[in-house]
C-alpha cells in the first residue's frame, strides 16, 4: 500500500476493533516497514489526527499503546520518534568498538573530530600514571552503527610511547592495528567506570539528540599485558540507543 493511499484511508468505525487500536496497528506496521527511517520522527499529533479523521483523544490512545509496546517515544516540545532497538555494548577485558558491532550484524563507522598533542591535565596524568603536564595525544571520534550516531569518545595516549599515532590516523586503520604497528602487541580493559551526565549542546548535536536527554558515560583505562596504562578514555553513549552489559569473569 502506498503512503499516498495510507494518508487517505481512515479506520472503519464498525469493524469490531476500537478505532485507536486500528490506528496503533497501522502505525506499528509502518514503523516496522521503515516508513519513518529517515530521522525517526513521526508526523505531529495534529497531522496524525487529521490523517485518520479522529480527535486527539483517540489519537493519544493509539500513541500510548505504541509507547507501551516500546515502539515510539514522545519528547516534550519535539514530537514523537521511533524508539530504535537498543544496541548491546559489552564491557569486557577486550572491549573493541568495531568487533562489538560486527558481532551483532551492524556496520561500524568512526569519524575523526579532533587529534592533537597537549599537556596532560592532572586527571589524565593520574589515569595514565604519568606526570602532570607530560605530553599526551588526544583523539576524539564520533562512532556510528549503521549510520546512526551512538557515541562520542575522547581518548588520551602517552605520547612518549606512541609517537606517530596522529599521523597514522589519516590512513583509516583500526586503533588496534595502529597500536600494534607502534609496538603494542596486545592490550586489555583494566577498568570501566559507568556514570550518567547531561550532554553539552555540541555533544547533543553530534549525537542528534536533545540536550535534555542524559548520556551514559564510560571512563575507561586500557593497559598492556604488564598492567601499564596505554589509554585513558571517556565515551559518551546515547542513553536511549545503547545498553551497556558487563561480562563477569570474561576470559577473552
Automatic annotation (TrEMBL):
Gene Ontology annotations of biological process type: negative regulation of DNA-templated transcription
Listed Gene3D superfamilies: Chorismate lyase-like, Winged helix-like DNA-binding domain superfamily/Winged helix DNA-binding domain
GO MF annotation terms: DNA binding; DNA-binding transcription factor activity
UniProt domain HTH gntR-type: residue ranges: 17-85
Keywords, sorted A to Z: DNA-binding, Transcription, Transcription regulation
Keyword Transcription assigned: yes
InterPro entries on file: Bact_HTH_transcr_reg (IPR050679), Chorismate_lyase_/UTRA_dom_sf (IPR028978), CP_lyase_PhnF (IPR012702), Tscrpt_reg_HTH_GntR (IPR000524), UTRA (IPR011663), WH-like_DNA-bd_sf (IPR036388), WH_DNA-bd_sf (IPR036390)
Keyword tRNA-binding attached: no
NCBIfam families membership: C_P_lyase_phnF
Name of the protein described by the UniProt record: Phosphonate metabolism transcriptional regulator PhnF
Lineage of the species this protein comes from: Bacteria, Pseudomonadati, Pseudomonadota, Betaproteobacteria, Burkholderiales
GN (gene name): phnF
Amino acid at each position: 500500500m502506498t503512503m499516498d493511499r495510507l494518508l487517505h484511508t481512515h479506520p472503519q468505525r464498525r469493524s469490531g476493533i476500537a478505532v485507536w487500536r486500528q490506528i496503533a496497528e497501522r502505525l506499528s506496521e509502518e514503523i516496522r516497514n521503515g516508513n519513518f527511517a529517515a530521522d525517526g520522527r513521526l508526523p505531529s499529533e495534529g497531522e496524525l489526527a487529521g490523517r485518520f479523521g479522529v480527535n486527539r483523544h483517540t489519537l493519544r490512545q493509539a500513541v500510548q499503546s505504541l509507547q507501551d509496546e516500546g515502539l515510539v517515544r514522545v519528547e516534550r516540545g519535539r514530537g514523537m520518534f521511533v524508539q530504535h532497538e537498543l544496541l548491546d555494548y559489552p564491557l569486557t577485558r577486550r572491549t573493541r568498538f568495531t568487533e562489538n558491532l560486527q558481532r551483532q550484524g551492524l556496520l561500524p563507522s568512526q569519524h575523526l573530530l579532533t587529534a592533537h598533542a597537549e599537556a596532560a591535565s592532572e586527571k589524565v596524568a593520574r589515569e595514565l600514571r604519568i606526570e602532570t603536564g607530560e605530553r599526551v595525544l588526544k583523539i576524539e571520534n564520533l562512532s556510528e552503527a549503521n549510520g546512526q550516531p551512538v557515541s562520542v569518545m575522547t581518548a588520551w595516549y602517552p605520547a612518549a610511547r606512541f609517537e606517530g599515532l596522529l599521523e597514522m590516523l589519516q590512513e583509516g586503520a583500526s586503533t588496534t592495528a595502529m597500536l600494534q604497528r607502534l609496538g603494542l602487541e596486545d592490550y586489555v580493559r583494566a577498568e570501566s567506570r559507568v556514570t550518567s551526565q547531561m550532554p553539552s549542546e555540541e555533544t547533543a548535536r553530534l549525537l542528534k539528540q536533545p540536550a535534555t536527554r542524559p548520556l551514559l558515560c564510560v571512563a575507561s583505562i586500557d593497559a598492556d599485558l604488564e598492567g601499564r596504562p596505554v589509554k585513558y578514555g571517556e565515551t559518551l553513549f546515547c542513553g536511549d540507543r545503547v545498553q551497556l552489559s558487563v561480562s563477569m569473569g570474561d576470559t577473552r
